[in-house]
Amino acid sequence: MKIHDDVPYVTNPLFYRFMKHTIYLLPLALTLILGACQGKEEAKQEVLRPVKYQVAGAGDGERIRTFSGIAKAGNEIELSFRSGGIIEVANVETGQQVKKGALIARLDNVEASLAYEKSVSALNGAESAMTTSQQELERIKSLYEQESVSLSDYEQAKNAYQNALAQFESAQRNRSLQQTQIDYGYIYAPSDGVIADTEGSVNERVSAGHVFAILNAGEQMKVEVDLPENVINQITVGMEPTITFSALSGQTFQGNVIEVSPVTSQNTATYPIDVEITDATEAIKSGMAARVTFDLGNGEEQQSNQLVIPIKAVGEDGNGNFVFIIESEDGETGQVKKQPVEIGPIATGGFVINSGLEEGQLVATAGLQTLLDGQKVRLQQP
Q: Which helix (H) or strand (E) element contains residue 162?
């Protein structure tokens, strides 16, 4: 007997027993195979976070430090309009030499001119009224002395003159004020110098306070440098760094710190200082990029046995300061350990560590907020 023309009917009981066990074992085998594959896939997906580090060790405090700066004139003056209007005259260009008193720019201040003309007209009217009241007062006074008018008439004439005089003086002040508003539309050079920059052109409308030009009025040159907070306390007025310029290859100039700001600048968390170039030449131009090198070993030098680590490697929580030490056997991967430390004063290279850290230990220098105690990481060179 056949179930199908092409498939023979099998009557062997062993065949049926084999197929029965195979049906039950097949899902179990598939589960084991999938589980093994998934385990391998999970193992492959384990990714260790890269962490920058530094070896804790004693040093000389990085005595020689170099910072970037910009050359500027010793006396840099911003020339601005004190009123708003449309620029009618612009007499200067960048790099132009100007003499003291020279007209730099002028506004076509129609509003101020009209206001001035009105003030002049009002002043003329007030002056005429004052003159008339004065003449009337003199006439009434003469009649009063002749007993031809009463005392009240005389007092009334005096009051009228006092009011007219007050109006005249007020009109005088208003005319002076309007003249000043017109003068605010003119910019004159306060001293001899060179125009370092201009901002504005003819027929351009500007507002009050607009800086139209920058005048380099001093012959002496200086360099403005922005310093980080871990260095600023080691810089004092009178220090003598060396200065080089990328545009003046092979030349080194002597500097003198003339000003150290006690507060940070508005746009950055750095402290600006001014370094005078004591042996400046005409080759140094305003705006040139400079490099200022300080020798910080003249003050309190760091002791050779002190451990110093970067400021960014030290964190702080409710229990105090801490660092993340990286324990590694192969130099490629490791495990971080949160370690309490006692910090000392700020040195040139960062915090001095008084206790909690030993020389040669690896310290994480980035991402302290996201690291966890015991986390496995991959070491990354700084």
A: helix 151-183
CATH code for the part of the protein at 64-74+220-298: 2.40.30.170
User: So where are the chain's domains?
Assistant: 1-43, 51-60+303-380, 64-74+220-298, 77-188
The rounded radius of gyration (Å) of the Cα atoms in the chain is 43
Q: Under CATH, which number does the domain 51-60+303-380 receive?
A: 2.40.420.20
Q: For residue 1, what pLDDT is reported?
A: 44
Residue 127: the pLDDT is 93
Q: Which pTM does this prediction carry?
A: 0.44
Give the Cα separation of 103 and 197 in Å (integer): 16
The residue-averaged pLDDT of 348-364 equals 83
Average pLDDT over the chain, rounded to an integer: 82
Give the domain 77-188 fold: Helix Hairpins (1.10.287)
